[in-house]
Amino acid sequence: MVRHPTGFYSAGATTVFASRYDQRLSYCLYVPSAHDPGGEPLPLAVLQHGTGRRGPQYRDAFAGWAEKHGCLLLAPLFPAGIGDDPDDLHNFKFVRYGDLRFDLALLAMVEEVGARFNVRTGRFLLYGFSGGGQFAHRFAYLHPDRLRGLSIGAPGRITYIDPERPWWIGLRGFEERFGRAARVAELRGVPVQMVVGGADVETWEINNPGGSNWMDGADAYGLTRVERLAALRDNFEAHGIGVRFDVVPGVGHEPLHVLDPVKDFLASVLSGPRG
């Protein structure tokens, strides 16, 4: 087999590319063998990392799934320590950090990938776990029109659809912060999954009053990730948004151990209408 000295790194599990939108940010891909520049465009799935920034591990864990379903994977990398605080871990989770909008950065990455590969970018699948789950559901309030399916994994801090409670535990001030109202009605047309380990009950990381990622009221609907995600499910359903809710028995806060139901959900979305 003859290998191309640059093309080799743009097929299968790719190298890491700097984003043209903001070169502090980067991403890697999995380009399945079904990719054909002159053929049918492939669907796209975005795998959003959490605090540990393990995007390449998520990409690798989904590689076999991507081959089976002919789906291109995009795993962004939003580094810690952007801006003036070298110890900051949480920037992307709340979508806006200073003058950096991580939702727009992700959409720019999607367009960059669409310019290089034969992939459908109008609507894509989005999965995030922990901090990635935080980002994923907040992104959905802003851009439901870009989502073909949404999987929210074990977020520790949740934004509920509640216009009376302040951002980020609710939506009061959302429009002032982002320049548009939350698009809740449009989310009713997006397939949504919520997934969490049944033993994901440790609270040391998510109940930290005084931390930079804490605000009073964050624990109003539960102390554990299981309780808070169940409350978000009830909140979504009260607003007409259907939710598939998966609890993986015996699993704690372990991102690679909840993937079977996520893969099943994403595959079910791909087998349905494109939207």
What does this entry look like structurally?
The structure is a single chain. The protein is of the alpha/beta class and 275 residues long. The chain has a single domain, classed as Rossmann fold, CATH 3.40.50. Helices cover 28% and strands 18% of the residues. The protein has eight helices and eleven strands. Strands 1, 2, 3, 4, 5, 8, 9, 10 and 11 form a nine-stranded mixed sheet that branches. A hairpin with a 2-residue loop joins strand 6 and strand 7.
Percent range for β-strand residues: 15-25%
Distance between the termini: 39 Å
- Mass-distribution shape: globular
Q: Provide the succession of SSEs.
A: EEEEHHEEEHEHEHHEHEH
Q: What is the CATH topology?
A: Rossmann fold
Share of residues in helices: 25-40%
Structural class: alpha/beta
Radius of gyration: 18 Å
Please give the count of helices: 8
Instruction: Report the uncertain regions.
Output: none
Count of individual beta strands: 11
The major sheet is characterized as: 9 strands, mixed
Q: Overall mean pLDDT score?
A: 95
Per CATH, the superfamily is Alpha/Beta hydrolase fold, catalytic domain
CATH class designation: Alpha Beta
Label the CATH architecture: 3-Layer(aba) Sandwich
Number of domains: 1
Top keywords for this entry?
single chain; 275 residues; 9-stranded mixed sheet; Rossmann fold; alpha/beta; 18% strand; 8 helices; two-stranded antiparallel sheet; 11 strands
